Amino acid sequence: MMKKYLYIFMFLALIFTSARAQEFVKGVVKDAAGQTIPGATVILKGTSKYASTDIDGKFSIAAPKDFPFTFQVTITGYEKHEVDIYELPSEPVEITLKTANVLDEVVVIGYGSQKKGDLTGSVSSVPQLALKQPISSFDRALQGAAAGVQVTQVSGQPGAAVSIRIRGGNSITGGNEPLYVIDGFPVYNSNADASAGVTAGPSINALASLNPSDIESIEVLKDASATAIYGSRGANGVVLITTKKGKAGQNTFTYDAYYGTQSVLKRVDVLTSAKDWALLKNDARVNSGKAPYYTEDQIRKLGEGTDWQGAAFRSAPIQNHQLSFTGGDDRTRYAISGNYFKQEGILRNTDFERYSGRVNLDRDISSGFKIGVNLTASKISAQVANAGIVNGLLAMPPTVNIRDVNGKYTYQSEFETPLGNPIATLEKEVNKTTTYRFLANTYGEYTFLEGLVGKVSFGTDIINNKQNRYVPSDIYQGANSNPTGKASVGSKFASTWLNENTLSYSKTFSNKHVLNVVIGYTQQAFKSESAIAGSEAFVTDQLAYNDLASGSVYSQPSSGSTAWALNSYLGRINYSIDQKYIFTVSGRADGSSRFGKDNKWGYFPSAAFAWNISRESFLSNVEAISNLKLRLSAGVTGNQEIGQYLSLATLNSATYFFGGQTYIGFAPNRIANPDLGWETTRQYDGGIDLSLLKNRINFVFDAYYKKTTNLLLNVPIPYTTGQSTALQNYGSVENKGIELGINTTNFSGPFSWNTNFVFSINRNKVLTLGDGANYIISGANIAQVGKPLGSFYGYKTNGLFQTGDDIASLPTINPATTKPGDRRYVDINGDGKITQADDRTIIGNAQPKFQGGITNTLSYLNFDLSFFFQGTYGNKLFNQNKQQLELLTGQQNASTAAYDRWTTTNPGNEVQRAFEDPAAVNTSRYVENASFLRLKNLTIGYNLPKRVTSKIHASNIKIYMSAQNLYTWTKYTGFDPEVSRNEQSTLNQGIDYSIYPSSKSFLGGLSISF
Length: 1010
Known about the structure:
mainly beta, five-stranded mixed β-sheet, 11 helices, 52 strands, about 10% helix, globular
C-alpha cells in the first residue's frame, strides 16, 4: 500500500514539476516615452537563458524553479537595467529603459576604452551609416564623416587605394598615411608592401581585404594625448577599427545583399567630330609652315568620327553578399561571417573581387580568465586598367577607327606622335593582381585581483601577392618587333608578427578618486620577399604569361628581401577627481631598426587635462546644459615611415664589359648616416564638448597646432663623397586648424530625425628646409619655405599675343619664335623677359580652405531615409589632362576649347593658336577651382511588418534602395574634383592626369535576420 501511495506522490510531483517547467515570464520593453524597443536582450542573470524582444518590444522567457531571480536588459543606446522577480507575475512585466547618457558611451582608445565623459584627447567616431555605403574598403567611409580627416581618391579603379590626411600632411618625403589598428593589431597601409611591382596601373588597396560590413566601429585618434601611446607611428593620426563581436543572449543569423549598376560620373569634353579634328590638324600644320594634311575632299569623306570615351565606358554591375552568425551565452560570444563582393569597372575589362571570412570568438574560462581570437582571411583580385589608358582615350584622334576594315583592332594612330589603340589595350592586355591575406590576433586576459588585469596577445598579418602581366603582340604596347609579346610575373610574400603584453589597474578611492594605469611592452617584426621574372618575343600569344621560357628574349630577373623590427615600452595614467577633473599622462619609447645606430630609440610623451564644468555646483541647476567639458593636451609623436636600410651604407649591382666578357660588379649607392632619426611632431590641442537640452544637441570643438621637425629629406652633399644626396633630418612643417562636430536629435518618437555635421579648417606651411634651402621643386609642385605643401609652381598667364602687338618689346620666353596667338606670361621680376629662374611663381594650392560633411537620418514607422552631403572649398587642381588637350598639335585629340582657339578671324584671348610643336608649359590656366559639394549617398529603406516576417520566422526583413555620388556641384572641368594622382606624396598632390574616372551607382538591397 505504501508503495502505491509513493507512486501516486511521485506521479503528482512529476506533473507539478513538468507544469512548473513550462511556466514563462512575459514582458515588454519600452523607452521613457512609452515607445516599444525591438532587439533588446533579456538575460536571466547567472544563467545562459535569454530572449530578444520582437518588433513590438515583447519577450517571453522560461522561468527558473527558484525565486527570486533577476533579468538583465541591454541594448545599445540605453542604460543597462535589472529587474528582480520575486514571484511568477500574472501579467506581462513592463520594463522601461533610460536613454544612455552621451557621457556614458564607451569609446575605444589605444590599449583600452573609456567613457566619453572621461576622454581628455580628441577622438572622432565615424557614423555607422558611412560604413553601409557600397565601398570596397573601409577607409573610403571616412570621406566627410569625421572632422579633420581629408580623404582623396587617387583612382576610380575598383579596389584602388585612397589617400588620407588627418589634420594635414606632416612629412614631405616620408609617409603621411595614418596608422590603422584592427582589433588591436597595428597596420600601416603601405601598398608597396602588398604589391609585387608588375602591374602597370593604380595600386590595389591592401585594406580592401577587410570587409567593411564586418566593422562595428571606427574611432579616429587625432591629438597627441590620444596618439602618443602609439609613439613613433602616431604623428599622422591613428584609426582604430573594431570588428563586430557576438553578444550574450543574441543568437542571430543575417543575410545582407545588394546589387546595382555604375556609370561614369562625368566625361571630359574632347573633339568627337572627325571633320572638326581634321580642320584642327590642317590649322596646326599651316601655322607650322607646312602644307595641310587633309584635302577638302578627304575631309568630306571622313564620316562622323570615333567617340573613344563612349567606346570605353560602360554600365557596370556591383554586388555584395554577406552571411553572418552572431550570438553567445554568459560565457562564450561568437561572430562568424562570410562575404563576397564583386565590382566591375566602368572601363571595359576592369574589376575587383573579394572573398572574405571572419571569426571572432571570446570565451570566459573562469570568472577571472578569458581568451579570445579575431581572425580574418581573404582573397582579393583585380584586373587593373593600364596607367596610360585614360590618357589614350582622351588623346586618340576621332579620325582613327577602333577596328580596321577586316574587323581587327586598329594598331595605332598614323600621325607623328603614334598612340596605341586604348580599346585594344583594355580588352587584350592582362594586368592582374591577386592578394591573399590572413590577419589574426589572439589574447588571454587574467584578473589577478580586483582591478588588476594582465593581458597577453599574439598576432600575425600575412600577405601573399601574385601579379601577372601580358601585353600581346597585336597591340601597340606589345610590339617592338614581330612576332612578339611581353610577359612578366611577380610575387611578394610579406609577414608581420606582433606580441603585446599589458598590465592595467583600476581603482576607485573614497567614491571620488578614480585611478586607471596601463603599462606594457610590445614587439613587432616584418619581413618580405619578392621576385620578378619576364620575357618577350613570343611565337604565340596563346600561353600569355604561363610559359616565360617560350619567349626568345629574357628580361633581367630581380628579387629582394626587406625586414624591420620595433620594440616598445608604453604607459598611461588616467586620474579623475569627483568626475570633474581628469588628468592623463601617457608615453611610449620605441626602438626601430630603421634608424641610425646612434639614434634608434625615440621617446614620445603626452599630457592632457579635462574639466567637466557641468558637474560643478554653479551649473547643476542649469537644465539646458547637459554636459560642458574643457579639454587641453600636449605631446610628442613620431614618424618612422621611410623605408628600410636608409641609415646604412649600401651597394648596388651593375653590369659592365671587360675583355669581351660580361661581368657583374657592385658600387656604393648610399653613404651611412648613423644619426638618422625620427621625424618628430609636437602637437597642442584645446577642445570643448557641449551637450544641450538633455543631450539632444551635442557640439565638439577643437583647435590645434602641430609642428613637425627633423624632416627626413634627401639633402645635397659634396660630390667628393661619391654621392649627390643623403637622407638626413632637416626642415620643419606646421599645421594648425579648427574642427567642429555637431550631432542633433531633431525629433524623436514615431518620427525621428538625427543630423550629424562635421567641419574643419587646416592651414599648412613649410617653416624650414634646412641648410639654407628655400624650396624643393617636383614637376608642377613646389615645397617652399613660408608656403603650404601641395603648391603648384609655374608661370602666371595674362592672355594671348594679338596681331599688332609689338612682340619684340614684350616679355616672352623666346622672342624669335613667338607669334600672335601664343600665350603671354607675367614678368614677375620686371626685367623684360620670361625666365624659369625669375618668373615662375606659386600659382595655386591643392589644400582646401575648409571641408565638411552633413548626414541626415530620418525614420517614420517602418520607413527610414538617409542622405549624406560632402564637400570642400578653396582647393585647386592642376588639370594636366587639360594641359595636354590644349597643346593643339594636330597629332593628338584636343579639348572642345579648340573650337575657340585663336585665329586671325577669331582673335580670342583664352585658347592659343594651333601649332605642331609647342612645349607643355605649367601655367595658371591649368590650375582650376576644385571646390565641390556632392550628394554622396541617398538611401531609403523599409522594414517589413512583423505579421509578414513572422510567416517565415524572421525577426526582421529590410529592403532598401541607394544611390552614391548622385550629383556633384563643381566648376571643375575634369572628370572629378576629388582626385590626386599620387596616393602617398604630400609634395606631389593635386595633379589630375590620366586618372581612372569616378562613378555613380544605383542599387537595391535586402537584409534579413532570423
